[in-house]
Amino acid sequence: MRLFAGGASASKTGLRLYSAAAVLLLLSQAVLALPSRSIADSVLSRFLRYVVIDTQSQPDAETTPSTAKQLDLSRLLVWELRDLGVTEVVLDEYGYVYASIPSNLPASHPARTAVPAVGLIAHVDTSPDVTGTNVKPQVITAYPGGDIVLPGNPAKPLRAAENPKLRPLVGTTIVTTDGTTLLGADDKAGCAIIMTAVERLMKDPSFLHGDVKICFTPDEEVDAGTRHFDLKRFGAQFAYTIDGGTTGELNKETFSANSCVVTVTGRDTHPGDAKGVMVNAMRVAAEIVSRLPKDLAPETTDGYQPFVHPHEMTGDVGEARIRMLFRHFQTERLDSLKRTVELAVQQVRTMYPKAVITVDVKKSYRNMADKIAEDPRVANYLFEGARRAGANPYWAPVRGGTDGSDLTEAGLPTPNVFTGGENAHSIHEWVSVQGMERSVQTVLETLRVWVDSVH
Ligand SMILES: [Zn+2]
């Protein structure tokens, strides 16, 4: 899902350095008597409670949420928030959970009136790609290294060779599936991380923070996570989605995206006397696809490279349709991808002058980078928070969109934070408990940076 693996290279020196850092961190935590153990316990037990609830969403539904079963988790989150003492909690008619934790800064504190309200967002649904019914998480404490057998599907183990990100996690706790479902770390890890951070805010009055706003959304996986997002009710000036992957990875750049439909109208006749009359729309469509540059495809590009992706072709002799995705990190250059398609269409028109070919482009989502750069605090404070949390943060571009792309465009700058989850939307999905713990600490430290940075 995400690009650019973390810096955890597996050289021997790297591993040794890693252990030394881990030992130092453990020592410092012991000295400060921070409730770090309890963060790991709390986030894991919440996570295990949430993943057994089936919340799969469904594309092309008329309703929000797209499936009523998502509400099973939304309602549990409402109950748990109230149980933690959060009084302002709402489950709205679309299945969005909104909660608000007022600032506990004393009136004399310089940040009391100056620190903005900061939001935390995760989604309750899981992907329609893989079943989320009867998830049986497998908790591996003190992962010994090597392949991990998935008990419900021994033929398809989680292979260490295909999952190099497992290597630095030897000795730590990993949660996998049983091999028959997805895990749902995307994004129940995010839900558990936010709830664990809320627990800390509610139980530790010495932790000073500004207004904190929480939202759990439905239907992110079917591109409807922000359809009914009520920015006013949410009330945050800056926010973070907790919906990323590898520990330490932060995202403030996504693709800008358009979708494109090329429609070819041909001419169908009886094939027995078709000579010179029939225009086969399928042949025309195939000709167009074959002329799209092959070095501008998702299967041949990575990092910051753009692509044109024909992902669906339907039709018959009379009419054919090609659906494509345009993706570019530079919004202003999205049009160049349209021109690439138009060039191919122009060439094919001269070959098939009787075919009618139209190109229709629609806007999808936009790169959040430009708006985030307007007030870089939201990104800089997150990075500093992750650094203080010992997460070794780094920025990575997302070759896709996040709910933060839409929210940022709507005026709420929303970078994305790692959860420690990997292999989303598959039976090989797994999550690092240490990663979830670092994410909780990143969230808490980031809230602290917001307070500390107000002068
Ligand atoms: Zn997600």
Largest sheet: 8 strands, mixed
Bound molecules: zinc ion
Number of helices: 11
Oligomer: single chain
Examine the secondary-structure arrangement and name the CATH architecture of the largest domain: 3-Layer(aba) Sandwich
Order of helix and strand elements from N to C terminus:
HHHEEEEEHEHEEEHEEHEHHEHEEEH
Give the name of the CATH superfamily of the largest domain. Answer: Zn peptidases
What's the number of domains?
2
Notes on the protein architecture:
The structure is a single chain. The protein has 455 residues and is an alpha+beta fold. It is built from eleven helices and 16 strands. Residues 1-34 have low confidence and may be disordered. The strands form three sheets. It has an eight-stranded mixed beta sheet. Strands 4-5-16-15 form a four-stranded antiparallel beta sheet. A four-stranded antiparallel beta sheet has the order 10-11-9-12, with helices on one face. It folds into two domains: 12-253 and 367-452, Zn peptidases (Aminopeptidase, 3-Layer(aba) Sandwich); 256-363, Alpha-Beta Plaits (2-Layer Sandwich). Bound molecules: zinc ion. The site of zinc ion (ZN) has 5 residues, from α4.
